[in-house]
Design brief:
Dihydrodipicolinate Reductase, domain 2; Semialdehyde_DH_NAD-bd (chains A, B, C, D); EC 1.2.1.38 (chains A, B, C, D); homotetramer; NADP (chains A, B, C, D); N-acetyl-gamma-glutamyl-phosphate reductase (chains A, B, C, D); 13 strands; seven-stranded mixed beta sheet
């Protein structure tokens, strides 16, 4: 058996970090060689997450470039937005492959990034080389990438729902409405009043209506797929559940003669090679729970002939296919491995 | 002090029934004179709901027309669809005022009813006299009604969100999309696999996409408001919470120059007399929890000038303003009382 | 009608504060004359809790003794432990009646307080005059108190379950085991990782096993009731629900001949005058949801003749009967009003 | 590679069945050769659980002895109590190894079974050969068993918490109190009002106080461990979460000089060979979420020197270590495989 790939995680103590640890512990071809967490430097990871103490005895370390370069061949950056772009240039220079889970390397245009996320970017050359890490759309480019900007839960669920429509020119690109429903873990382990159990439980609400910062990212990729400028209406909602995401997408059909079965055939063909996407049968709509603890995105749809719209539903685990699993899927591709290697495809129910 | 109004409840053992009991116990001008529940005839109500045993000692009775007519001046029918139309003609003939919480008396056209709900209706004359029981839209007609078909949670939340737009002709009536999120109690106390805790918890899913039977009801009232045929896209979702409903409405503006503040002013004016509706300030979107245990509907909105759409959010308690509280509000109007009499306006938080 | 009593709330922005506002808004004999919240001084209360904006237009103020004394006749201190004892002496000197919701005035022995809560107490004379604010046990003393130390959720649920047993000498006082289950709002609106939705949802755990600081408080009152030193085993658990508390109490019977029906009779007699306590029928055990949004404590029990133990179950809303409602109940007594005046006795279900 | 073991599942459509399917699909040495489900005979399993449709194309079959014997070498009976004992004798006669997840083969004394579960047992010879399927206590006997009566969630969590205490004679065997907290899926997929989301959400309650039918089973094994008659107080509670179980055990120590660290050492030694049990460090108490989706039982404890009691906390997934995973663990032992083969040891968090 070949030697195992030495991987590191920066930002190991947050939810992204602990997903990566959990998944990589079960991955047959890698070993965890470094855990970076500035605020918990010196603390055994098993103290932060006692349920993993018997599986990993590594201690969190300060985030130091030389140490990461020495310890790892591959590194995952599970840090807040604005950190990755201070680290990636050095890591690449040190010969590492970098998978960034933040927004830092998802934008072709750094001015767009800066206008939504702030910061002062001087890494244009590095950013230009970054590949958008959605394997279902950019598989070939990811295979050879050194730097991957992995999309999060909202763009992943939205783009997987929209891609066949846009790529095939089936809809009016100005009619896209995405009504998204997210579990509370999407906000991370950061302490915010709105993330408290007592606040979020037994309640639903929208937030950042018409101005969520995933809008430019979704529009960038949609436009790339459609070969023309696409505008989306995107409304995120907070749902009283820890994990999971559902996107309900509405779009006006160009050809009102298309029926649900036709559309399902188009989706099945589009995702035939995509082992992380499952298109459901006619009349079946996904439950987010089906995707929980898996790297699978479930898609169902309906064509409403009365209104000449298609309604697409996509469900995934916001912390796996919508975050850490997606990054590992991209890593698998760069190593020439099967893209679902080490990633769970089915979850527990109920 | 005047004698109290004697009210009865048919279908007292379900969720609609127990809401009515709970609310009417606190109502200063009524007394509960009859509880009908065929399956629990002879059982003290306090055995079905022990937490109310110290407040009500009435026993459930079989549903018999003569007994109801003798006992009550007003009756609420909290029965499954298809029961009310077998009872209402007799109750009206007996001189009672009838508030039906089912779908039976919400349709102008009984053929529409029959095509969605089945049944064999021969009560056209009675149905013609029924008034649609949404006080914010039909207050004056309700005041003198003998038979009120009270709308449920989906139509109430949808219509309160849409009414100012349609009445004032502010939107393209073909562009209405309603993405609705409902708590699980909306399915009632009936035993269904999908309503089990283990199934519904930690999960979100859509259902009845493009074919929910509240569509014709919503379209009927929207068309009445707009004075022209309106078509809506309506997608209901099940949310892991017991109570509460949120509607997210999307529509294309006719005048793209309108901004959020203008729209809020229009909504505030529209609902100035509506003590059960609260229009929120700019940038505030309602949480369903705010409405829990109240007869209040909270409305927030945003105009997206980029997409030329308005997004309206309305939140209510599906079992109060979306069901039993609404019926009591209508009853208050028929008695000439203040419409919120005995109805809670603020809830507990968190 | 007499003039309304002017009441103030210090610590208005937390969960205790917003419960008091909610309940006092519906109280027929009081008006809210002052809201103190240092961190939100100058902020309208309706900005903190938009769902209440249409009912209260008062602005939060800095906590200043003179202002409180000028504005109020009665004040509720809903502040963290360690604040009340810096305010109460001055408030009493200013002629106000003080209801403290923190632990500061619940201890006869200030050394016990200091060993569990820290701080440096020099208010022994004031503390000596404080009355323990559990109306079911100390009703007469509360009526004339100027300073009431109101017990929180754990002691209230525990003591109401235990009191008849101890007062009547029915159990071995060394055998008391209290297994308590609390909703997450018990931790307040403070930001803690363990209170995040993603952490607390879908999980149960114990905490502070054998060393929770409510132990000395519970033992102090138990010993007072029993007329001898009582030791309790107390284990709190965090339950994935926002509100509610259940205590499961185990104790060894002195007289193994006693059966459940006898014991229920004893409890009913003990709580005959207690309008906030409901003893349930034989074989009925309380659900916390029954108590949600009410000032009622539901009690059920079982005698196990096989093991010669009694198991008592008490359920209440941790933020009403376990906090703010209790304080208002005490205030009602000091004013000579019916003790449940303005307090809800029944909640919504489900 | 050796041929795969052909296993069958009777009762495949319930929660136990779907756990077995989920786990066995990932097991490297078995293939699912038969799915029995009388009520769904003829229905593809992927229609019952669409999220698994892409992984299993087997159709549910009627439960017929000959068919099972022909198709399988090993069979799991995930049926309601009272079914297994009608099937097991024939299955054993056909040469199969049988793992029963119901209560039918957990009792040494069939009269005890009949007095709690009813039925008319004539399979005493078969029942005598059954082994109690808790590997941590009966590992050697399970290795050679043909018929295993696998314990469910309450006995498993209770016995794993109690075993070291009883085996080593550390406690007064009359002092055992077990306060158990279960997720709602413990009631299965059967339709009951109390299992509805709207009823079980946001609430906690005890049930079957002093008379739950797991009491005789727990006492039977406790007595076997202690070598003397042991009596337990057992109180189950329903918790608003889908999966998970926590047991809080209280017992009076024989030697009050023992401290927490001593006790932890004893537990660690007792479970040294038990790969499915993890004893936590000092001061750490398990959260049920840690165990979710795993076959691991986490145990924490505290000795209270003040009260001379030990408090033990054990957490597991009621549907894995408390049901299906346990049965697979026993099967692994009978095949001479590592006992955790194919079973997940760590879960997702949060």
């Amino acid at each position: 058996m070949a030697e195992k790939l030495r991987v590191g995680i920066v930002g190991a103590s947050g939810y992204g970090g602990v997903q990566l640890v959990r998944l990589l512990l079960d991955h047959p071809r890698v070993e965890i060689a470094y855990l970076g967490a500035n605020q918990n430097a010196g603390v055994p990871f098993g103290e932060l997450y006692p349920q993993l103490a018997h599986r990993i005895d590594r201690v969190c370390e300060a985030v130091e470039l030389d140490r990461i370069v020495e310890a790892c061949s591959v590194v995952f950056l599970a840090t807040p937005n604005g950190i990755a772009y201070t680290l990636a240039p050095g890591l690449l220079a040190g010969g590492l492959r970098v998978f960034d889970l933040s927004a830092d390397y998802r934008f072709v245009n750094l001015e767009t990034y800066q206008s939504w996320y702030g910061g002062d970017r001087h890494d244009a050359a590095v950013a230009r080389e970054a590949v958008y890490g959605l394997p279902e759309l950019y598989r070939e480019r990811i295979r050879t990438a050194r730097l991957v900007g992995c999309p999060g839960c909202y763009p992943t669920a939205s783009l997987l729902a929209a891609a066949p429509l846009l790529k095939q020119g089936l809809i009016d690109p100005r009619s896209l409405i995405i009504d998204a429903k997210s579990g509370v873990s999407g906000a991370g382990r950061t302490l915010k009043t709105g993330s408290l159990f007592a606040e979020a439980d037994s309640s639903v609400a929208a937030y950042s209506v018409a101005r969520h910062r995933h809008i430019p990212e979704i529009e960038q990729i949609c436009s790339d797929l459609a070969g023309m400028r696409v505008q989306v209406q995107f409304t995120p909602h907070l749902i009283p559940m820890a994990r999971g995401m559902l996107v309900t997408l509405y779009a006006q059909l160009r050809d009102p003669g298309l029926v649900s079965e036709d559309m399902l055939t188009i989706y099945e063909a589009f995702y035939r090679q995509a082992s992380a996407v499952r298109v459901l049968g006619s009349g079946i709509y996904p439950q987010t729970k089906w995707a929980s603890g898996t790297n699978t995105c479930f898609i169902g749809l309906e064509v409403d002939q009365r209104t000449e719209r298609v309604i697409v539903l996509s469900a995934l685990d916001n912390l796996v296919k919508g975050q850490s699993g997606q990054a590992i899927q991209a890593m698998n591709l760069t190593q020439g491995w099967e893209e679902m290697l080490g990633l769970p495809a089915v979850g527990f129910y109920p």
